[in-house]
Specification:
The protein is an alpha+beta fold. The protein is 34% helix and 15% strand. A three-stranded antiparallel β-sheet has the order 1-2-3. The chain starts with a helix and ends with a helix. The relative contact order is 0.22.
Length: 98
């Protein structure tokens, strides 16, 4: 099986200035736990439900006042659509990504 067989094409994205409150609502409405962060067509990183919990809620920040830029997970692992899923899984395990 290849990445292209399981990937989501054209996912919803957010910009670095999007508030965490907006991101949380998007995650709820889309039923997802991760959203790519893009600026001028360039992937900067991702924001995850775990980022929100650990970097915003647990530190006492307010989701309405906190932006994605303040708690982004940078340097996402990129994988070509034609690669095998097993290769991707090995890369994720090596980098200790979920």
């Amino acid at each position: 099986m290849k990445i292209q067989d399981i990937m989501t094409e054209g996912p919803e994205t957010v910009s670095p200035g999007t508030t965490i409150g907006e991101v949380a609502r998007m995650m709820r409405d889309l039923d997802v736990g991760v959203i790519p962060v893009v600026n001028e067509g360039k992937l900067l990183g991702v924001i995850t439900d775990r980022d929100i919990t650990i970097r915003v809620t647990a530190t006492g920040q307010y989701p309405i006042d906190t932006t994605v830029q303040e708690c982004i997970s940078p340097y996402p692992v990129n994988v070509a659509p034609g690669r095998k899923v097993e290769q991707w899984a090995d890369m994720m395990a090596e980098k200790q990504n979920r």
